[in-house]
Amino acid sequence: GSVVASYPYDDSPTHKPTGVYSKSADDEVFKYLAKAYASHHPIMRTGKPNCPGEEGETFQDGITNGAQWYDVEGGMQDYNYVWADCFEITLELSCCKYPPASQLQQEWENNRDSLLTFIEKV
């Protein structure tokens, strides 16, 4: 996991594992939605999730193009965009895939304003 808002495309024509910006036709809209979420999240907005084992990983403005981060061939985010005209972003909300129950209240606090802002934009 990480703490970042990722937007299409997750796949790239070259299928290089990482580092290829794969721009969609609606790139500016996706960046706008991702920034709307990230800018209200206390960790995500820093662009420095500081996840164990990935302490040096950074994301400008707390967002990333999926394929630039890592290439995912056949992902649901791209499929829904291409075949169903759905505008989806992927929200990585925690370094831990399954946070313990004792951390859930803090996760809610971290994400509440971001979720409300995202809903307003949509």
From TrEMBL:
The active site is at residue 92. Residues 1-122 form the Peptidase M14 domain. GO terms for biological process: peptide metabolic process; protein processing. Keywords: Carboxypeptidase, Hydrolase, Protease. Pfam families: Peptidase_M14. The keyword GTP-binding does not apply. The keyword Protease applies. InterPro entries: Peptidase_M14, Peptidase_M14_domain. GO terms for molecular function: metallocarboxypeptidase activity; zinc ion binding. It comes from the Eukaryota. GO terms for cellular component: extracellular space. SUPFAM superfamilies: Zn-dependent exopeptidases. PANTHER family: CARBOXYPEPTIDASE D, B (PTHR11532:SF57), PROTEASE M14 CARBOXYPEPTIDASE (PTHR11532). Belongs to the peptidase M14 family. This is CBPD Carboxypeptidase.
